[in-house]
Amino acid sequence: MELKDLKTGMVVETRNGTKYLVVNRDGELCDIGMNCYMTLDGRDACIFRAASGAIGFHCFHNSCADKTWRDVRLKYEPDAYEKKQQEYSDRIYAKPKKKPEYKPIQEKEGEPVFLTAKDILNMPRPPERFVKTGIRDIDQRMRGLKTGYTSVLSGLRASGKSSVISEICLDCVESESKVTVYSGELSPQNFMRWMDLQAAGKAYAEPTQFDGYYNVAKENQEKIAEWLAKNFTLYNNKYGNNFLAVKEQLERKIEADKPDLLILDNLMAFDIRSLSENKFEAQTAFTWSLHEMAQKYDIHIIFVAHPRKAMGFLRLDDISGTADIGNAVDNAFIIHRVNNDFVRLTKQMFGWKDDDPLYSANNVIEIAKDRDGGLQDYFIPLYYEKESKRLKNSFAENKIYGWDKQEDGFSSIDQMEIPFDM
C-alpha cells in the first residue's frame, strides 16, 4: 500500500502485527498504544494530534467509540475544564476590577528592608511550642504540631478523618493543651458520641442490639464531659457557616481562652463566597487567612479539605480544587484506608511487597509535607478498634485518659487488660 492510498481513520497493520491509525490527510501514522477508555484493558485505542494541532482520541470498542479527547481528559482530570471555563466567564461577564492599591514601603529605624546574616543572627528567637497529637510518629518525627503553623488533613470518604480529629482532641486535652473545633458536617451530639467512645475505651464500650454499634454509660459520659470542660469547646452550628462570621467568633474565642489548637472540619462546610466569586480564588484566600490567624495568635490550625476525584493513588495535588492549598500550608497529612485499592495502588507506585507491615494496619496516615523537617511520603500505620472507634498506634495500645484516672494516677482495675488469671 502506498502513501497516496491512505485515508483518515484507516487502520494499517504492519507485518510484525503493530497497528497504526491514519490521523490526517497526509497519511500521518499514530501507534495505537493507549488502553481502552472504558475497561483500561488491551491496546485498542489511541490519542493523536491532527495536522491542525488539535488532539483527538479514537477507540475501536463499540461501547466507547463515541468518546472524544475531552471525555478521556475529564476521566483523569475531573476539573480540567472547570477552572478555565470559570475564568473565561469572569473575563466576559464580570465587572471591570480595580487594580489593587499598594502602599510604598517605608523603612523603619532599626528595621532594614534587607537583612544581613548578622542581622538575622541577632534577631530574637521566640520559644517553639508544639501540640501533641497522640500519633506516635508525628509526635516523635515532627515533635507534634507547631504553633503558628497550619496543617491540611485530607482523605477519601470513610478513610478515618473524623476518628483522627476527635482522638487528637482527646490527646490534646490529656497533655493539658486547649482545643477548639468547628465541625460543619456533624451535629454536636454525633461528634460527642464518637469522642465519648474513644475517651471511654474498649472496657467501657457497651454493646447494643445492633452489630458494631456501642454506647457509653451516662455516668461515664458525665465524667468525660467534666474532664473535657476546661480544655475543649465545639462551635455551635446553629449560628451558621459563613466563613467570615465564624472566623470573627473564632478570633474572639482565641483571644479570650487562648487555645493551642484549632480544628476546622471542613473547607467544603464553610460558605466562602464572601472571599471571592471565583471558587479557586476563594479557597486560596481561605487558606492564607488561616495562615495569618495561626501566626497572629501563635496557635496551630488544622483544616480538613476533601480531595478532588482521583483516579489513582491520592496525592497532595489532589486536595480540593487548587494547588495553592498544598503550597500555603506548613504540613499536609493524607489518611488512607487499607483496602484492596490501597494495596494495589501502593504496589504500583512504590513497589511494596505483599508482606509490607503497612498492609497489616487498618488505616495509614501519610505525612505528605513537613515544612520544618522535610518529611514526605512517610506512612504511619494505625489500627482500628471497633468497640472504641480508636485508631491506635499498635494492636496492644490501651490509652487511659484523665477522666478515668484515680487520685494516685492509676486507672480502675476494670479498664486494664490483665494477661493472666488472678
Topology:
Blueprint: E1 11-13, E2 19-22, E3 29-31, E4 45-49, E5 55-59, H1 69-76, H2 82-93, H3 117-121, E6 130-131, H4 136-141, E7 145-146, E8 150-155, H5 161-174, E9 179-183, H6 188-200, E10 205-207, E11 214-216, H7 218-228, E12 232-234, H8 243-257, E13 261-265, H9 279-297, E14 300-304, H10 324-328, E15 331-337, H11 340-350, E16 363-370, E17 378-385, E18 390-392
Parallel strand pairs: 8-14, 8-15, 9-12, 9-13, 13-14
Antiparallel strand pairs: 1-2, 2-3, 4-5, 6-7, 10-11, 15-16, 16-17, 17-18
Task: Report on this structure.
The longest helix has 19 residues, at 279-297. Helix 5 crosses helix 6 (188-200). The protein is of the alpha/beta class and 422 residues long. It has a 9-stranded mixed beta sheet with strand order 12-9-13-14-8-15-16-17-18. Mean pLDDT is 84; it is low at 20-34, 37-42 and 416-422. The N and C termini lie far apart (90 Å). It has 2 domains: 3-76, no CATH class; 128-404, Rossmann fold. The protein contains 11 helices and 18 strands. The protein is globular and about 80 Å long. A hairpin with a 6-residue loop joins strand 2 (19-22) and strand 3 (29-31). The chain is 28% helix and 19% strand.
Strand order of the largest sheet: 12-9-13-14-8-15-16-17-18
CATH class annotation of the largest domain: Alpha Beta
Helical coverage, percent range: 25-40%
From the spread of the alpha carbons, the general shape counts as: globular
| Mean pLDDT across every amino acid position | 84
CATH topology of the largest domain: Rossmann fold
CATH superfamily of the largest domain: P-loop containing nucleotide triphosphate hydrolases
What is the count of distinct domains?
Answer: 2
Number of strands: 18
pLDDT below 50 for ≥5 consecutive residues: which ranges? 20-34, 37-42, 416-422
Strand content: 15-25%
- Count the helices. How many? 11
End-to-end span in angstroms?
90 Å
Computed over alpha carbons, the radius of gyration is 27 Å
String of helices and strands: EEEEEHHHEHEEHEHEEHEHEHEHEHEEE
Provide the structure class: alpha/beta
User: Tell me about the biggest sheet?
Assistant: 9 strands, mixed
Quaternary structure type: single chain
The CATH architecture name of the largest domain reads 3-Layer(aba) Sandwich
